[in-house]
Amino acid sequence: MLMLKMAFRNIFRHKRRTVLTGLSMFGGFVLAAIFIGWADGTYNGIIDSFTRNNLGHIQIHAENYLDRPSLYKTIDDLDKVKSALTGLNHVDDWAPRVYSSGLASFQSKSSGVQITGIDPVRENKTTRFHKKIIKGQDFSQKPDHEVLLGKGLAKVLNAEIGDEVVFISQAADGSVANDLYKVKGLIDMGDEASNRTAFFLHIQDAQELLVLGERIHEVAVTVDDLDRVRNINQTLEKRLHKTGLDPAPWQEFARSFYVAMKADMQGMWIMLVIIILVVAIGVLNTVLMSVLERRREYGVLKAVGTKSHQIIRLVLTEVNILAFFSVILGIGVGLVVNMILSQHGISLSQPITWGGMEIQTMKAEINLRSFIIPTITIFLSATLVSFFPAVKAARTEPAEIMRMY
Amino acid sequence: MWFYIKLACRNIFRNKRRTIIASTAMGIGLASLIFVDGLMIGMKESMIRSATGSFLGEAQIHLKGYRQSREVEETIHQKMKVINELEQEQTVENFASRALSYAMITSAANVRSVQMVGVQPQKEKFVSKIDEAIQEGTFFQEDNPRSILIGKELAEILEVELGDRVVLTVSQAKSGDLSQEMFRVSGIFSFNAQEMDKGMIFIKLDKAQEMMNLDGGIHEIAVHFKNIQLSLQPDLSFWQKYSRWGNEAVSWTEILPQMMAVWDLTYLSRLVMSVIIAAVVVFGIINTLFMSLYERLFEFGVLRAVGTRSGGIRKLMVFEAGALGIISAGIGIILGLALIGIFAYTGIDYRGIEFAGSTIQELIYPVLKVYQFIYYPLGVVAFVSMVGLYPAITASRMSITKAMRRSL
Amino acid sequence: MKKGVCLAIAFFFAAGLGMLWAQEKKIDAREIVEKIDELYRSDSSKALMEMEIVTPHWQRTLKMRVWSEGMDKTFIRILEPKKERGMGTLRMENEMWNYLPKTNKVIKIPPSMMMSSYMGSDFTNNDLVREYTFTEDYDFNLTQVDNPEPDLIYVKCVPHEGLPIVWGHIILAVRSEDYLPVWQKYYDEKGELVREMFFKDIKLFEDRWIPSVMELIPFTKEGHRTLIRYIEVKFDLQIDSSIFTLRNLRSGI
User: Which of A116, A207, A256, C176 has the CB geometry, 3.0–4.6 Å to A212, for a possible disulfide?
Assistant: First the structure.
């Protein structure tokens, strides 16, 4: 108790020193917290845009579909998926898809294509599909033998809105799948290769064409909070156990994107380490100076009988009290700043558009680790750096110290 | 004036421990700024190299419209003129011609649709990294016109090994007739990129031209600049110069827009991060400086007591701050050099990561640039001196007795 | 694969000149191989056949009528099943077209589709287009196999280097009495058996004895096989040139 009282009094006695030391802790804390909140927020924002825009956050397929896709590996009972999804918190939306490949032909031109059968209403809600449309219109509500072509494909086939395109492939029963589709619109998928093969049909048209009945190949699911993806995926796995269906998070089916993001984030981690280092050094510096400069005081204390270990404890207590208040204040200010940044963010002068996705604002995120990491940094560096000079001060003979100063 | 400078220096060196601690702290801050700067540049260059180095090249020339249609007939116009100009072009380090087509490759076990690329081995070596990606066999070192290089994944699907025979089917220009030829697998490569390892095959350019009945025509020239950052400049004269005669020269940024999109997105977040780092460093410097000046208030009090005028105190403190700044700058420069030096040599390892059709084959090398070692240190010295003004003014105004109270 | 199909093509284009001669007892590999090649050559032919396709996911039987002239022209009309009735395929030299009655469209088969399977069978579109002969394009020798059957003769054929043929070698098994094929085994260059073709049900068509059933079994795909059965074949008949036209293709007959 005496220790605490003395510590407090010491702190308030040397205002400027206290302020400077405290400032280094407080300032460092706030900046580190903002950095982490911003980095996490923007990365998650980017990941969310990319995945939500097309792939979805979680995809459900029949077993083994992801490894070796095949027309025959289907989800036979959509109801199982629907029931697995009901009541799951944080799930936004879901959309079914059918996939196949074949030949599309218009007049004298033909080209290999990748068919995707989508449910227009669901797809627009889930992945904002309609944003990809650059010319023409979206599907009609009811299936009407309409097709949306990738813009590169339209060019290769020399087909325009309103033209009728033939499609031929093999159906699931082995028969020849072929039919005519009217070009309703053109889309931009974001990369040239996809644009040259994209062939979107209404899912019911696709099922009829490929003799799939009610079967589909994929259900794409979006969630409202990227951090929960893995958890939700696990829950889905449990619920879909033994149904032969396999949910996978974006980290698996968009593996290359995930790995690239991780790599970029590693760059961020390097910068975080640098920040922590600089903050720690700042704290180090101020605490060190303040302890070293007060060795005379400690000398006096020893002279009047304070034991060595008490001196050490005194130093450590002072430093930690200071750290404590700096951190509290830091959390307060950090929270406010991060909240502002997460609501309003920073806007780009020109939105970045790509494949139907548009990003204008980058936002920060409020999460636990943006406060935990700085806290640990401050306390650790403060305590560590004050330890050794404290020990030294505690050990030196009082007479020697007082002579020095 | 000189007097104060001499005094400032002596003060600095008198209390070595304090000086070392303070200047080291600020020096580390400076070194961080330099390092992060180099890191950012390095990351950008690395991204460019990853996107373009494996195969794409930083720029490509095609006949206008070829990129969208991929028709075999659409070969580059005035090929010889273009090639001659490229040979003379200052900004170009290397270039290579290619003939491309969709093709079917058949083995005894399986058949696959692939992208066939006819290359000139000697020139291709310097533009793309196919030769480095070879895991088994060689990069067209033998004289056999029927050599073919296939990706590791494709080899598995086709169940073939080095030396096995495969058949390529392509359609010829103009007539649309089919051309079928036998090849022997002379090399197996892995770019660690699915698209390439499963979907691309390489044969010799003249054989490809023969099969497609191109009469010496080529579809693509891939270009490697001396300075890869040129590819990011939209107003480079290169683009216009090689877009004549019906051709079109574009940068990789147009061919792989998704890569640029990701870079642009993360750019803003990186920018803010750099600002934060700078803020942290600046903050640290201010703090350190204040600390080291304020705790010597006693000394300055003594000085004033023996008659030094306010102005003199101010000058002294500012010079001390400046001297401290210079020492910090020195430490910072050495540290910065060391850090960048080490990492520029060993690199930061992101190898093997694939994205958007390209693989990061590079280590990320922070880049040493002269300006880093001029602007940042100068900035630090100037800043430190300026910051030193604040405690200087405080000290010069404070009553002497207060200053001599031996405490901050 | 090419060679095996060659035999299939032969059946499409109908049998060769005259009967097989089972004269000399001296076994000459060249003779056997020539006869196999000749077996499937004719100036023209018209055939009615069935193709039975079995895969792990479905099973179908197609019925079709096939006209051929020389080595360059083929016309196929699908008669059954109902969904495909009226579909047609026209091959003229190296080009191929399909007619789809449902959409009333004719599409040209691009190179990317040439190697894909014909109607989902184990034969490819390409097989209808190319032809190589054992006599000219292979080196052949009498050979021995493990567990030989007493009345069969075996010939090993190795394709000439440089030809776009994927096989390492092919073993033909023919009947010693009339040199009619019994089976053919296709090996890759490592000596692995990749596919096997069986010839059964020898029947008399006009004046020729020909195996009326050919069955192709690939070893690289589980559960797949294709069987072709000849119901009627006429050789060297007069075929109206208008048969091999796009107009005829569109007519749906």
Answer: A207
Q: What is the mean pLDDT of each run of 10 residues along chain B (408 residues)?
A: 81 78 81 80 74 84 87 89 91 92 87 90 90 89 90 90 90 80 92 80 94 91 88 87 90 81 72 77 75 74 81 80 84 84 67 46 64 79 80 75 63
Query: Cβ A176–C84 below 8 Å, yes or no?
Result: yes
Shortest distance between the Cα of A174 and any Cα of chain C, in A, equals 6
> CA of B259, closest CA in chain C: separation in Å?
29
Q: Which of B146, B163, B178 sits opposite C111 (nearest CB)?
A: B178
C250 interface with A at CB cutoff 8 Å:
no
Q: What is the mean pLDDT of chain C?
A: 81
Determine contact: A402 vs chain C, CB below 8 A.
no
Q: How confident is residue C131, by pLDDT bands cut at 50, 70 and 90?
A: low
Structurally, chain C folds into a number of domains equal to: 1
**Does B385 lie at the interface with A, CB-CB under 8 angstroms?**
no
Give the 3-state secondary structure of residue A236.
helix
| pLDDT recorded at residue A204 | 94
Answer whether B103 sits within 8 Å of C111, measured CB to CB: yes
Partners of A170 on chain C (C-beta within 8 Å) are 120
Distance between CA atoms of residues B217 and B219, nearest Å? 7
Which pLDDT score, from 0 to 100, does residue C126 have?
Answer: 64
d(CA B384, CA B86): 51
Helix axes A255-293, A295-303, angle to 10 degrees: 60
Burial class, B353, CB count within 10 angstroms (exposed 0-12 / middle 13-18 / buried 19+): buried
- Its domain, for residue C8, covers 2-251
**How far is residue A99's CA from residue C19's CA, in Å, rounded to a whole number?**
51
Contact yes or no for B109 and C220 at CB 8 A: yes
Q: ω before A69 within 30° of 0 (cis)?
A: no
What is the distance in angstroms between the Cα of C201 and the nearest Cα belonging to chain A?
Answer: 27
Whether B169 and C114 lie within 8 Å, measured CB to CB:
yes
Q: Which of C114, C116, C186 sits opposite B178 (nearest CB)?
A: C114
Distance from CA of B276 to the nearest CA of A (A): 6
Residue A349 has which token pair?
């002068």
Q: Which of B21, B113, B279 sits opposite A31 (nearest CB)?
A: B279
The number of angstroms, rounded, from the C-alpha of A16 to the middle of its chain's C-alpha atoms is 42
pLDDT tens-digit series, residues C3-25: 555 555 554 443 333 333 334 44
Residue A154: pLDDT over 60: yes
Cβ of residue C94 closer than 8 Å to a chain B Cβ: yes
Q: What residues in A contact B280, CB-CB < 8 Å?
A: 27-28, 31-32, 275, 278-279, 282
Query: Residue B215: CB partners within 8 Å, gap ≥ 6?
Result: B209
ipTM: 0.75
| Whether C61 contacts chain B with CB within 8 A | no
Instruction: State how far the Cα of A165 lies from the Cα of C165, in Å rounded to an integer.
Output: 36
Quick: pLDDT tens for C134-191. 788 888 888 888 888 888 989 999 998 888 888 889 999 999 888 889 999 999 888 8
Band (pLDDT 50/70/90 cuts) for residue A198 is very high
Q: Tell me how far apart the alpha carbons of residues B155 and C217 are, in angstroms, rounded to a whole number.
A: 23
Beta carbons within 8 Å of B312's beta carbon, 6+ residues apart: B4, B303
Q: What's the confidence (pLDDT) of residue C53?
A: 92
pLDDT at site C16: 35
Task: Return the pLDDT at B349.
Answer: 59
DSSP assignments along C192-236, one per residue: -EEEEEEEEEEEEETTEEEEEEEEEEESSSTT-EEEEEEEEEEES
Query: Distance (Å, rounded) from C-alpha A256 to C-alpha B258?
Result: 13
